[in-house]
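Observation: inputs received (chain + zinc ion).
Thought: call the complex predictor directly.
Action: predict_structure
Action Input:
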Amino acid sequence: MRYSLFLYPHVTAESRIIKSELIDTLAELDFLQRSESSQQLSGGPQLMDFITFLGCSPALESAEIRSVILLHQFDQINALGGEAIDAIRYPGCKHLLRNSADLISDYPALTLWICPECGQQGAVEDINWRKSAGFSTLFIEISPIFPKEAIPSDRLLSVLNETTQSSWHWFYSKSSVRLDT
Ligand SMILES: [Zn+2]
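Observation:
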């Protein structure tokens, strides 16, 4: 299974997230390359300078695999991810959450979780997703990236924070990018 790194801003009423402005800024930094599509873009020559590798992702670092950058934008706050690497537990009762991907794909139509073992319930956003899901109106997906081996650099996060006046976070989940391999 291929995984991606997803970056997303914490969206508030004051947020000013303009996708074209974000693409312009990231293209100037050679983080990504513009393309005909405003949704699927290619990684730029400097992309790997914005990602810190903790383990070895040799194929990606030596550019043997072309990295793809996908922008997901929504009119209202949506959820992406849910394919957790770590065990996810319900807040409070700590029972194991077994349907994490379903809970994320049903969002925002369903925003509540109900623990099947004890009947407790709460908001899906309040679950500790352990960097496996995020809630926002815009997501930058970088693929392929191995979970936990690559983290966004402080420089990348400050560029994103400054461009959008929002604080950015990240998670890892199953890739939604189709790559020809
Ligand atoms: Zn429970």
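Thought: report the result.
Final Answer: The chain is about 15% helix and 30% strand. The helical segments are 19-28, 58-61, 100-105, 154-164.
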